[in-house]
Each structure stands twice: as C-alpha cells, then as structure tokens.
Fold each of these.
Amino acid sequence: MNPTSILVVLAVLFAVADGFEFRYPLPHFANVFIIFWDGISSKMGVVGHGVTVMTPAVKEVEFFLAPFLDVVLGGDFKNCHHFDVRIAHDRVDDAKVENSAPQPNQERPEDPEPIVTVKTCGGDVNATSASIEFQLWRSIRADMRCVWIVRGPYLKKRFNLIASGLKETDGIYLSAVSYAGLGNSLKLSRSAQNVTIDSEIVIISLIVGHAPTLGFKMEFYSSGASSTAPDKLSCEILTSAKGNVSYPRGGGRYGRYELALFPIAPSVPRRPTLRFTRVDLQASSNCRYDDAIMIYNWSDGRYVLVTVFCGNTIPASVTFQDGAGLVLFQSDLINAGTGFEFQYE
Ligand SMILES: *[C@@H]1O[C@H](CO)[C@@H](O)[C@H](O)[C@H]1NC(C)=O
Ligand SMILES: *[C@@H]1O[C@H](CO)[C@@H](O)[C@H](O)[C@H]1NC(C)=O
Ligand SMILES: *[C@@H]1O[C@H](CO)[C@@H](O)[C@H](O)[C@H]1NC(C)=O
Ligand SMILES: *[C@@H]1O[C@H](CO)[C@@H](O)[C@H](O)[C@H]1NC(C)=O
C-alpha cells in the first residue's frame, strides 16, 4: 500500500468510527475530507490548486485534513473533486435529544394536506407539499411529455398516486437529482404507493405511450431534515417546439455551487435536436466532478447520460428520439466561466 492509500484508509476509518456516513459511494467521490460534527451541512468542500475553501453554510468543522490534501489529491483520487460525509439525520437527532440543546434543524413533519395544487403539464414546484393533477379522468394525447421539478425544503420526499387513468404503456417516473447527476428513475404506480426519495430535487416525468390516455392525480410531501440546496438553483422547463437558451440568463459569469436544470419536453410531441453554440466553463480532464454540463436522453424508462463536457467543448448535437431530454449544469467553488448557450428544435 502506498502512503496515499494509507492516509485515505485512515481518514475513512476515522470518519466511520466517529459515526459518519458517506453520502456517495467512496470510489466515485473522494479526496476532500471534511467532517461535520453536527452533520447538518452536506455542502461539499472543494479543493483546487492547494487552496482550501468552504462555503459559509458549513458549520462546526471538527477536523479538516488540509495539510494532507495535496497528498490525497494524488494517485487514483485525482479529478474526483468532491467528497461528502455527514452524520445520518436520525443520529443527529438522538444526539440533540440527549444533550437537550436547542434544535434548529429538527425533523420537520409533513403538511397535513398539500399546500399547493398544480394542474399544468409540467411546472417548477417549490413547496413543502403539492397536489399535482393533470387532466384527471380527461384525455391526454398520445406521446405527451410533461416534466415537473419538485424541490421542497426538506430532504425526504414522499410521492403517492391518488388517482390515475394512465395505461400500462404510460408512466409517471421519479428521478432524484444530486451533484452526481440524475439518479435512476422509479415508476410510480397504484401498486407502489408511498415512494420515498431522499433528495433535494426530484424530477417527475409523465411519459405517455403511443395511444391517447387519461390523466392522473398525485401528491407529494416533504419532511425530515432541511435540505441543503445548491447556492443557486435554476429550473427552466422547455415546452415550446424550439428555443434558444443562454446561461446565466443575464450574462456575466456563473457563481459557485450553482445547479441549473433544463428539461426539454415539447408539449406538442416531437423529437427535438439539441445543439450547443457556446460553452465557457472551467476546464478539467474529467469534468463531471467540477463545472460540467450533462446531457440526458429519455430512453426506455430512464434518463440516460449521453455526454458530459466542460471547458470550451462543443458536443455533437443530440436528438431526443423519445421526445424528452434534459440539460444539467453544475458549478463547483472555483474558476467560474461565462456559461453556455444552446438551441433546440
Ligand atoms: C422557494 O420558496 C421559498 C419559500 O416560499 C422562497 O423563500 C424561495 O425564494 C423560493 N425559491 C425559488 C427559487 O423560487
Ligand atoms: C402512506 O404514508 C402515509 C403517511 O405516512 C400513511 O398515512 C399511509 O397509510 C401510507 N399508505 C400506504 C398505502 O402505505
Ligand atoms: C436561435 O438563435 C439562432 C442564431 O442565433 C437563430 O437563427 C434562431 O432563429 C433562434 N431560434 C429561436 C427559436 O429563437
Ligand atoms: C436517445 O434514446 C433513444 C430512445 O431510446 C435512442 O433511439 C437514441 O439513439 C438515443 N440518442 C442518443 C443520442 O443517445
């Protein structure tokens, strides 16, 4: 074992023995060791060029292996710039009950009833709970796509299908979003009630088969610990037949820890082709754990990652054959650029 591996193993063992949980699988997210003793913040620490910076949201740092970072950054860990640990929320609560300290981040219960109702095809739902109802018992055209983004302020999100006229060939899919990108999609059906997802952001996609169908009603409730959303989260759901998008919207440079989501799901079914015309992000060899743009193609019940790029790379155009896709942009803490522009039609 080389000295780097020994250091990494020691730090990991120390963290585990101290009651910390790794939020993402270790081999994929490694290198910056930040241990929070209250475990509240899940913000990532990022290291670049020997500079160690942490967001103001990070509280009560127990220790930070700054002197070792350059060592840890070597070897296999190079280019895996995010490492994220925290105490499981339940353990945080136990500790807080024991010492009966004030509980600023106590578990938050679900709302008794959904506080907002959304009836449109797609939408940006920023609420603790919502009823999402689209064409309930009324007809929906074949091949329809609708995308809702749910981002309640609490981490745990429970989804229930209340009523549905959807057919077997249609589906409502839930996909969690994190800094690792989009997770797998779960199909919500009457037989799988109370689907619970622990994520700051969940994307709901309605995918109608090649025949007309009937609408549905579902509910969503968030609860539990406060979520640590990105510093800035932008969502723009693109439903027109074609469009041009630039980010940041007002020009200038993007900031740190931004996450921007652009689901592309034209409300009149078609197969949009996406073309990037300008890309100016921080460059890195791996992209994915630094500033990056990811393009996802809806295919066979899930969002499939087509490409990840950064720097000034203009990717090949992508056609969403199944009528829906998504562009995800994320930034880390350092070296912001002037963003990007794309067209789709
Ligand atoms: C989401 O809702 C909260 C509470 O209503 C509000 O403070 C916050 O600004 C909203 N965020 C966005 C991005 O609209
Ligand atoms: C779903 O969860 C709610 C709230 O926890 C509970 O009241 C309800 O009985 C659950 N439904 C099913 C089918 O498990
Ligand atoms: C997008 O921009 C291109 C060139 O900048 C222009 O030709 C095209 O008409 C624009 N499309 C839309 C939908 O605005
Ligand atoms: C996107 O998914 C569709 C449907 O599965 C597939 O036909 C197409 O080749 C995919 N496109 C890309 C660029 O991956």
Amino acid sequence: MASITIFFISLIVLLPPNSAIHPPSSNSNLIQQACKATRYQQLCESSLTRYPNANANQIIQSALNISYASLRLAQSMAQSILKASAGNPSRTTAANSCIQHLANSEQRLKSTVEALPRGEMKNGRAWTSAGLAYQYDCWSALKYVNDTEMVTETMLFLDRLIGKTSNALSLMMAYDVFGEKMASWGPPKTERDGFWERGGSWGDGKRLGVPAGLKADMTVCKGGGCIIRDSAGGGERGAGSG
Ligand SMILES: *[C@@H]1O[C@H](CO)[C@@H](O)[C@H](O)[C@H]1NC(C)=O
Ligand SMILES: *[C@@H]1O[C@H](CO)[C@@H](O)[C@H](O)[C@H]1NC(C)=O
C-alpha cells in the first residue's frame, strides 16, 4: 500500500509544469489539421494544445517532446515496479527488461529531439520508429506479470505513450512526404492502403515495399501502435506507421 502511495506521489511530482505559468497561445485549427495525419487524433489534439504549435516544425517538435516527457515518466513507473517486486522473481525480471527497453527508447527519442532542429527528418523517423518498438517491448514484458494495480496502471500509461510516439512518427512522415503545408496532410496511409513512399533520400524513384518473401502479419494492439510478427525474425515489433 505504501509503495502504491509513493508511486502516485512521484507521478504528481514528475508531471511537467505546463500551462499554469505560460498560458497557451494555441492555434486549434493548425493542431486539428496536423492531427488528421495521425492514428490517434484525439490524443494528438489534447496533448498538443499546451505546447508550441505555430507551424508544422513546432508541432512535430512538440509532439516529440511530449512523447519524450511521457517516456521519462514511464521509466520512473517501471523503477517503482522493480522496487515493489523484491521476492517476486518473474516480476523483477519483467521490470528489469522493461527498464532496459525504455532506456533504449530514451536514447532514440533523445537523438530525434536533437536531430529535428537540424532538419534531419529521415533520421528522426528511423530513430523514433525504433524508439516506439522498444516501448512496445516494455509493454510486452509487463503483460505477463500484470497482477498488481501498479503494473496495470503502468501498462495503461504505456498504451498512451505508444499512442503519442506513434502520432509523432505519423507527423514526421506527413512532413517528409507532403511538406510543411499541413493543408495537404491527411489520414496516415500505410502499405496496407497500397501506399508506398517514393524513393526519397535514395533518390532513384524506385518503389519501396516489403521485401519479397517476407511474411508480415500485422495486428493492431489495444492502446496504440501495432505489432508486426515477422516469421523470419521471430520477434514482435511495434510500428507507428503500420
Ligand atoms: C523541445 O525540446 C527541446 C530540448 O529540450 C527544446 O530545445 C525545444 O525548444 C522544445 N521544442 C518545443 C517546440 O517544445
Ligand atoms: C491487466 O490486468 C487488469 C486487471 O486484471 C486488466 O483489467 C487489464 O486488461 C490487464 N491489461 C492487459 C494489457 O492485459
């Protein structure tokens, strides 16, 4: 009981101090337009309103910063699970594995936060996509030890984190494909819709697609992101644009 109380107190302390000091100069039309490109539009709109959002660049950076801040919070929640799991080997293992995955995710998202102001959208997309997969890996680790309130709460939080990261990734993709004029942004298109991005930085205009022979079976997971089961690699991966 005490550990649960500490857990929630630490959440309150760690919540970012946002709108109280700087009232938002939010442009809800721009946010709505941008969020059309995302999979979880409501989550996108509600989380962006309190952050800088004057143009596409700012919206993308804000979305990334939001995801990064949530990730830091998820890390402290995972640490709390570990602390509360002495004497429970399976939960200890799951918590440690989750913590490791989130550390990997942090590294990727941090790289993206630093790369975006330099205009490195392609790198940002690659790193964020990896960061999202690690978040899903943490979720998967906890799934098997979901027998305390703390784990359940953390998994719900991870659901939202995955949704936010997926959204940030969709926004980057829209910018990369359609440019900074958000009027041209629409619902995220995926390989499922028969949409293949043009060659981009590879520059040869070749159509991109799933390599021949790869069997990918995609399912959408409950709270966000989706899972690609790759029979060759044998693993599960979360993916935002899928
Ligand atoms: C995002 O975070 C970075 C690093 O903390 C900061 O420099 C930047 O101003 C933030 N951008 C937005 C739009 O919030
Ligand atoms: C975790 O357990 C709670 C309580 O039994 C349940 O409501 C929830 O759906 C479970 N979450 C997952 C992801 O299995």
